[in-house]
Structures are given as structure tokens and as C-alpha cells.
Design a protein that fits this description.
Keywords: Repeat, TPR repeat. By secondary structure, the protein is mainly α. The protein contains 18 helices and no strands. It is 78% helix and 0% strand. Helix 4 packs antiparallel against helix 5, helix 5 runs antiparallel to helix 6 and helix 5 packs parallel to helix 7. The radius of gyration is 22 Å and the shape is globular.
Length: 363
């Protein structure tokens, strides 16, 4: 049953893999089998839940796998270090950054004790470490570790490789956050060119880079080029994954941003609603992707003068994000400031001050 679940996962048939692996875990919990075997089952279960986008449950399953590996006395193995790195990435998504950082650093230490520091096995944990540091706004350290991952891959593998393309993409994200738009564009181009060599021009792997690149083009004022890029991502997703795939929802939100930048707010709002309709078929209402689109919809409403709708949406975004993020993070501070601006513009100074004090006291 476990082999079948693993096979379904490798084929991308997550809905078939999930119930099978759940049964495996439940059965193994009643049996007297080696703890390491139970740990592996929880690990696979966590990976399947991660693939489904159920990151909270994935974190719980993988935490249990860590505990079982430790009880089994196998906390210095390659398998355990891989679990730590995978769990660190899930914790990063769940905004548990300190735990994520500690885990991926432990994974790196274990791997460095097993291999030399330029071994191929170190590329992935350095990649994950960089992504965590980036989320903590530590861009210089993120860049250093992103280049470590890339350098290891380039030293061990000739020619195009998915890991290299992903590193170029993430370096572009870092440069974008540092407002180095030219360098960001260059790295997106390298990522896109390598992805096209690896997968061809119409593969789903192309769409994320295309979408990210379109955001850079927008910031550079190249609206028509950005529109062409995101329309390409939409077409590939629709043709290869289907019009109700969650990726379609994300790209519709990106497409809406183009119309928002052109002050076509009604068209943008319609696209945000389409994106939400798709995403809600796949994720719970508090999922980061859904909340991200709600935030974009709120900003669109604010810019178009629909202040009451914007206020309602900003409140909703804040109420959900406060359960996941620290109050000092920009995921909280940006919508908070937008809501405060609305309240103050309406003369609700007392409520604005009260909100400001509440969020200041929780930092």
C-alpha cells in the first residue's frame, strides 16, 4: 500500500496517494514495527500533504517523523537530514522561520559530516536556507547561500539542470526585493532560457518564471511585454494542467495586476474573483494563496475608490494573517498600514490608534 501511494505521488496523482498513505500510517501505529519504518511512513504522508497544499497537516506529520527518527537513534543519517530540509521548507511556508532556520542548518551540518562541503547533496539544503533567509528579509545572506547552491550544482553537473534554473529564479527574486531590477531581469531570463531547454517552450515548469518575469517587466513600465509574458503562462497552464488548476488561479491574479496598473479596475476585479473561485476549490479559506489574492483585490478596490469594500477586505486579510505571521512582518504591516490610512481618512482616529497600539504591543 505504501509503495502504491508513493507511486501515485510520483505520477502526480496526489488525490489517490493521500488516502492510501493515511491508511498506512493508521495501520502502522497499531503495529510493533521498527520506529524508523514508522518515521518513513509519516515522512511520505507529510510530503503528500505538502504536495496537496495542506501545509499545516504536512508540518504535523513531518514533525512526528522527526520525533520517531530521534527515538530510533537515527538522527545522523542522510535520510534524517533530508527530512529536516523538507520540513524546514514546510515550516518556512507556514512562517515558522526560526524553527525552519534551525532545522535546515542542522540538515546542512549532518550532510557536511557525511560528505565534503561541495557535494551535490548540499545543493538543496543551501537552496532552502536561502529561501528562509529571504523571507526574513536577510537578502545578503540569502544571496550568499543561493549562490552556494548554484555553485555546487555547476561544479557537479554539466549543462542545464532544474536546480540551476530554480536558483536563477530565486536570485532574481532577491534582486527584485533589493530593487535591482536589471539584475533581476537578467536572472529571470537565464532561468527561463534554461527551463525552455529542459522542458520545451510549453511545459508547466515554464509558467512560474514567466509570471515572475512579468512582474519585473511591469515595474520597468514594460506593460505590453509583461502582458505577453503572463498570457503565455495562462495559455500553458490552461492547455497542460486545465482551466481549474490552482496554478491557473495564481496566474489570473498576476494578470489582474496588469489591468490594475492600467487603471482598468473593473477588469482587474473580475479576474481576482475568477482567481479566488479557482483557488477556493483547492485550498481552505485561510490558505496563503487565497489571502494573497484577497489582499490584491483589496488594493484594487482602494485604488478604484471603493473604500468600504477595501476596508472589509483589509480587515479580513489581517484577521487571517495574524494567526500565521508575526506582527512585525510585512505580511501584516502592509495591509495594516493600508487599513489605518482608510480609517484615518474617514476620521476614525480612535480606532486607528487602537489598532496601531494592539499591533505594536505584539511585536
Amino acid at each position: 500500500m505504501q509503495v502504491m501511494a508513493h507511486t501515485y505521488r510520483s505520477l502526480g496523482e496526489i488525490d489517490k496517494a493521500d488516502p492510501l498513505m493515511q491508511q498506512v500510517v493508521e495501520i502502522q501505529d497499531t503495529l510493533s514495527i521498527p520506529l524508523a519504518e514508522k518515521a518513513e511512513a509519516y515522512n511520505i504522508r507529510g510530503l503528500i500533504l505538502r504536495d496537496k497544499g495542506d501545509f499545516d497537516e504536512a508540518e504535523k506529520a513531518m514533525d512526528q517523523a522527526v520525533t520517531l527518527f530521534q527515538k530510533a537513534g537515527e538522527s545522523d543519517t542522510e535520510e534524517y537530514s533530508k527530512l529536516l530540509a523538507d520540513l524546514a521548507y514546510v515550516k518556512r511556508i507556514n512562517a515558522n522561520y526560526d524553527e525552519a532556520l534551525s532545522m535546515v542548518q542542522e540538515a546542512i551540518n549532518i550532510k557536511e559530516n557525511i560528505h565534503n562541503r561541495t557535494h551535490l547533496q548540499l545543493a538543496e539544503p543551501y537552496y532552502i536556507l536561502a529561501s528562509i533567509l529571504r523571507k526574513q528579509d536577510n537578502y545578503e545572506q540569502a544571496k550568499i547561500n543561493q549562490f552556494k547552491s548554484l555553485d555546487i550544482l555547476q561544479a557537479n553537473i554539466n549543462g542545464p539542470h532544474p536546480g540551476k534554473a530554480n536558483n536563477f529564479n530565486n536570485l532574481a527574486i532577491i534582486y527584485k526585493e533589493q530593487d535591482s531590477l536589471v539584475k533581476a531581469g537578467e536572472h529571470y531570463q537565464r532561468s527561463l532560457a534554461m527551463s525552455e531547454k529542459l522542458y520545451g517552450p510549453s511545459h508547466p515548469e515554464i509558467v512560474t518564471v514567466s509570471s515572475n518575469f512579468s512582474n519585473i517587466l511591469l515595474k520597468q513600465g514594460k506593460i505590453n511585454s509583461a502582458k505577453t509574458m503572463i498570457k503565455r503562462a495562462l495559455q500553458i497552464t490552461r492547455n497542460e494542467l486545465g482551466k481549474t488548476h490552482p496554478t491557473m488561479g495564481q496566474h489570473l491574479s498576476d494578470y489582474a495586476y496588469i489591468f490594475r496598473s492600467k487603471k482598468q479596475y473593473s477588469k482587474a476585479d473580475s479576474l481576482y474573483d475568477q482567481a479566488l473561485h479557482i483557488l477556493k476549490k483547492h485550498y481552505p479559506d485561510n490558505h496563503p494563496r487565497i489571502v494573497g489574492v484577497l489582499h490584491n483585490k483589496a488594493e484594487n478596490a482602494y485604488r478604484s475608490g471603493q473604500i468600504e469594500q477595501a476596508e472589509t477586505l483589509f480587515r479580513k486579510v489581517l484577521s487571517i494573517r495574524t494567526e500565521r505571521y508575526d506582527s512585525s512582518s510585512e505580511d501584516i504591516q502592509i495591509p495594516l498600514q493600508q487599513l489605518l490610512d482608510i480609517l484615518e481618512s474617514k476620521g476614525n482616529i480612535q480606532e486607528a490608534d487602537s489598532l496601531r497600539n494592539i499591533f505594536s504591543s505584539t511585536q
